[in-house]
């Protein structure tokens, strides 16, 4: 059962909506009260029943199973393909550092340094320290690339990596076409889904990726310090575990020198102890799935389009990102004839409106608004009026 995302009672689940206009959900989103309660309920349970009591241990086992099941519903994978991390960055590093690379292997990164740092720096370091070739796909002003160029480059490549949607323009990349190209060329495919998980429908089977990393604390509205790495069954054996311990391995038989690595997802997740965060993320996923991803997409784009229209009427404001609404998320980026960092700072200090400063291809500084389903078209109009007033000062 889904709930209309623009229902007034849904906004009451986010206390911040009573105090300010928060449209920086592409960085960290506020958590609904259900997530706060789930996190604190877990801590209270540990305090009441003992953090290492059998009852608590059984509860944690069930909790992690439920969490993986909800992630599986979100992205259409198997629960055992879900590895719990602390962030997108950690997930991508598990992949980058886990593959058995050979000197001269080629990695293709869309846009190179115009990717988010979390999905560029790990590959750049590999190229510098391990002798891999890092090929950067040329991009246009919106961040799109030439599929023909990718098809040629992929013939001799070990791995292709890119964001699902861009953190600066919101442009949605053609992942299914990329997945087809990588499959035809026997290349691995890694996706940074930080800006899409929780805001548009994701199907890893249709995409055909081997790895996908995303946080729980952006569009999924979960607690900070929780992330997800999807690792397909067929790719799991290609990754050397980043660390090792009792959860991920064991000594085999009577021979104390033989280490046996456990199966997925445990092989990639030793030492995980953020159980309060897991409780919060499970509640967040339950909440998001109840509202419905398609409903969220519709509500988000309504606010985004209202904001783009209002901003488009302001002299000196330039909108960035694809014109085609189907090719972008609700992220709205725009440049102004004044210092964007000053505008962002004054909006928060003087009006209680939270946006973000980012940059687009070419290094141009821009302002980013990232509305989610608890934001409204009225708030979009207010933001535009606030920006217009600041530009007239």
From TrEMBL:
Residues 21-350 form the Aminotransferase class V domain. It comes from the Archaea. The keyword Cell inner membrane does not apply. InterPro entries: Aminotrans_V_dom, PyrdxlP-dep_Trfase, PyrdxlP-dep_Trfase_major, PyrdxlP-dep_Trfase_small. Keywords: Aminotransferase, Pyridoxal phosphate, Transferase. Pfam families: Aminotran_5 (PF00266). GO terms for molecular function: transaminase activity. The keyword Transferase applies. This is Aminotransferase class V-fold PLP-dependent enzyme.
